[in-house]
Amino acid sequence: MVFGSLAKQPIPCLTIQSDVIERVTTFKLLGVTLPSDLSWEAHINAICANVAPRLYYLKQLRRAGLPSGDLLYLYLTVIRSVLEYGCAVWHHGLTVAQSHKLESL
Prior knowledge:
The protein is mainly alpha-helical and about 100 residues long. The chain is built from four helices and four strands.
């Protein structure tokens, strides 16, 4: 993958022992989705898709009468940890809309 403005310029294909290395526009590294333009939209969408079912289970457990202390513990360990994973890398590059999308969860 080529990052930034170089991604728009033609760059020759890389080969190792006559095998062409595939060029991708996005990949996942240690759980963080990295796009070539560093827009973070794909990563935020992946986080939201991962957290939505967990929030549903939390809602079901609340309806079942689980104590609020247990619900808080579940939220902190299962949901918030996913929301905040790697935020030191991607938080500074978020748009206002992306921040609101995460905050709404």
